[in-house]
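Problem 3 from the worked examples.
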Amino acid sequence: MLRNAHGAPVYFLLSAVLGLAAAFTQARTLDTCFSPLGHCDQVLISWINISRKNLDAAIYGLTDESIARALIRARQRGVRVRVVHDKVQAAGARDVSDLLTAAGIPVHIQRGSRGGIMHNKFLVIDSQFVVTGSFNWTQNASARSDENFVVLNDQAPRFQKEFERLWARQSN
């Protein structure tokens, strides 16, 4: 058996390196979008459209009706849709969360965990993909602001766990 200078079997080190290599080859960024030039609202809608089982969103700003309508269409085709939304933003004149609730989509309106704002901006798709970044679901974010998001396939369990934590809190 091969041993290193300290007497440890070499196969342990080799298996650790191979395990890390396998983990890194499976982790991928599947998409990246930069607004205002990247039509991020449409890219986000295309990701919403691929959902088959569930969409769990924690979103700060929600004024883009086309994104809200994509969530409604997902619900109509049998996808479970849940939304956690910031309390201050939900009270805004242009907020469209009422469209979601009118369509039967549960929306928890809440402040941040310690009285601040609920400033998350992420979407978990089918417990497999995560859309996350600075991109708010607003017309301003799509047309005027410098914002971004990435779509990842390796962080969904962590984001799903965080969503469930937020969802379990009472709306406040």
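Problem 4, a separate protein:
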Amino acid sequence: MMTSTKGLDPKGLTYLEGEGFPRGLIDAMVALKKDCAEQIFVIDNSEPMNQPDGHILSKTNTSDGNKLCFEKATRWEELKMCVKSHIQIAGALKIPASFRLLNTATDGAHVDGQEFSIGQGKGGVYDVDTEVQTALEIMDKIKPHSRSPLTKSILQLLRDIESRKEEIKKRGKHVSVVLCTDGVPSDSTREFLVDQLKKILGESLPVHMVVRLCTDEPSVVDFYNDLDKDLNIRLDVLDDFQGEALEICKINPWLTYSLPLHRAREMGFNSPCLDNLDEGPLSKTDQKELCDLLFGKDKMYLSPSPELDPEGFLDHVKTLQQDQTEQWVRTINQSEQHRQCGAFVCTDKHANNQSFLRHYRQDPIMEETKPWIDVDLVKNPKEKMAKMRRITQKKKGKWFAGVLGIKR
């Protein structure tokens, strides 16, 4: 075991590796414990979360083994799977985490008020394994109901952090706040929320905030993107796994954006290269940092500089990938033949076509594994893209995505 995982017990390491987290990212997440005082998840369990336009990832048994696929689900089922994953990740890393519900839990979910936690050592006793199991059971019992008192919950949370900010700062730490929601506040206007947030956050709270959206409704997406612009804090607004993968593949199609990378971003993992994935083509510096996360700094230490020797750098990456497990990526079908593809690219004409994207998101998903980095695509983007692209074609009055990717 590498020295940088000394803060992780064998059980935690086994869990993270079993979930597909690369060793470099595990090392970085272990280091996160030194900087993160606590993770706080604000969970929207309001009635609209029962809308059936979510997706969950599941395994199906086939003649050639297990296949991963996306199945239609409610927004709540999608969010429940997400939160349960973060409960287990926090347990594996032994990062203190609390989970706050917008509405009181019902249907036998025994929650102290509207909050449950792991790794907090209540009563001086730490039993993370039991706490993780209890938290998972609570999530299974929660049923969405009522409205979305987001403003009240967010302001109360930030005031709680404000009361502890000097102690948190003195320890050189921060708090990660993850807001999981499908809507805008039902208990205030946007102007009131922004005004109150500016007053509280103006005190320089040690907060990293992530908004994990459980909807594609433009008004909701715009609401939180505008908050990002108005507030002078680190605020990341994330779609679900499928949506983020789609955006990233349009910008950095050489990367296999797998679920572990998405989970790291959801939990507020602070890394410029991950933050920039959906902002534009990654710089050479960001590419190097990303490879450190994927393969480990020890293995990337002797790699040539991507600025001075890009060919040598890519050859080094290609060699490292020979010992890596290929990552599962979602694929889309074209017509009813259910063709498999390794990455997604769409023509500029349809890049912002919402009806096209909705159609894509509803298509069946099939199994495909790919290396983390498509080295050939990075080396020869024009030539490879020309070979990969099958121009979007019109069939039966509907647009279907072309086949993308080269089978190895």
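Solution to problem 4. The first strand starts at residue 36 and ends at 43. The mean pLDDT is 78.
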